Amino acid sequence: MRTKHNPVKFVAALGAACVFGWATASHAALLVQVTGAANVSEFEWEDPAGPNPLGLYIGPGSTGNGDGHLHENEASPGLKLAQIPFNLSSHPGGKLEVDATTTFFDVSLVLNGLTSAGDAIATVVTPITILSQPLASGATFELWSTDPPGADPAVLLLAGTLNSAAIVGIEGATTAALQSNNVSYTGGKIYDQLVLQGGTTTGQMSISLLLRNNGTVVRSGGQSGPLAPFSADASGLFNTPVIPEPASMGLLLLTAATALGRRFRRA
């Protein structure tokens, strides 16, 4: 005798497969890779002898020239964004790569509120001293596809808030890292795609700093105070814990639906 099946149960089972497929097709992911200007003489970070002793000012290497259509080695100064896991090639400066990621050349960085929160903390691990400079919470950043005013309208690619951050380096070294383990993404084309695909809008960032002009990681007061000003080349990574994969989810849904259909036909 053929059993009569309730279509509501079939829909419920398919919905469960949808949730299962979405959850299992997720992975920690790189959201964007940021590299410095093609012109190595243009520093990404530069201290203009301002009141903030950290030297955390945007240098000319972090400011685009206003033409987002220029290609690599043509756009100088400006930042390069790569490994963006979405197709954003329709926006000025966007180029779709063979691995389905998007690259932007000639990107500008806008940074506000990244200031020191007290003195640098010294940790002695013989024979080195590690300096950690806590930074005020709530600094914001924006990455634009071109620098207004320009040949094309500027497009906001990614904006966010650094809820906790620090600069860490070995005292006397010419390298350091600006890190935050709590970044909230708040806007831009990359953010829009992240939300559209059900991704997580928080993450972490790490920016490597190569100090220039004979600069080293030192405290402004010698044995005390915040880090002294510096100029630096920079490159960094922004990530997010989860970016769902709709293609994988669709495959799981198709498999689940096929299995359910076969079961019903056999009943």
Describe the structure.
With about 270 residues, the chain is α+β, with helices and mostly antiparallel strands. It has two domains: about 1-25 and about 245-265; about 25-245, no CATH class. The protein is about 20% helix and about 35% strand. The chain contains three helices and eleven strands. It has an eight-stranded antiparallel β-barrel. A hairpin with a 5-residue loop joins strand 3 and strand 4. Helix 1 (about 5-25) packs antiparallel against helix 3. The longest helix has 21 residues, at about 245-265. The chain is globular. The N and C termini lie close together (about 10 Å).
Number of strands: 11
Strand content: 35-45%
Q: What string, H for helix and E for strand, traces the elements in order?
A: HEEEEEEEEEHEEH
> What global shape is seen?
globular
Mean pLDDT: 77
**Biggest β-sheet strands, sense, barrel:** 8 strands, antiparallel, barrel
Low-confidence stretches: 1-26, 247-258
Number of domains: 2
Order of strands across the main sheet: 1-2-4-7-8-9-10-11
User: What is the CA-based Rg, rounded?
Assistant: 24 Å
Alpha-carbon distance between the termini? Answer: 9 Å
Structural class: alpha+beta
How many helix segments?
3
Helical fraction equals 10-25%
